[in-house]
Design goal:
Blueprint: H1 5-21, E1 28-33, E2 36-42, H2 45-48, H3 55-67, E3 75-81, H4 85-93, E4 98-103, E5 128-131, H5 135-161
Parallel strand pairs: 3-4, 4-5
Antiparallel strand pairs: 1-2, 1-3
Helix pairs in contact: 1-5
Length: 162
Amino acid sequence: MKKNDEFYMKLAIEEAKKAGDLGEVPIGAIIVLEGEVIASAYNLRETTQNAVTHAELLAIEEACKKVGSWRLERAELYVTLEPCPMCSGAIILSRIERVVYGARDPKAGCAGTLMNLLEDSRFNHQSEVVAGVLEEKCGSMLTDFFREVRRRKKESKRRIEE
């Protein structure tokens, strides 16, 4: 049975849930090579206090170790949120063949929303982009997370004022 994009995106969503459980922005990524998941990761920016510990970069690092090369030429990346400029650059440089993402990112999306670095022919590599796979589920995780963050901030501010 050939697994489809929704199957793999559900795995990325499971990774995103791990991030959310840690109080991180719930973003998850997996990398698939020839039908096998070779890497999985989730956002750890708050935990590490490191700007580059995005789910995609952590997954790329793990995948490179697994295959023993910086080239991930036949790999597919599944991520719950549209890649940012930094992650899009890493995707291009690692030669990932295909990127599938869930929710669009109106603030930093560089796989079609603000620009499309991944399919820009000026680079020496392009990745096929598939947008909006399980978009509603991926987007609602983020919306719910940020709604809760705002609620907590408001609650905390209210307690301080009392």
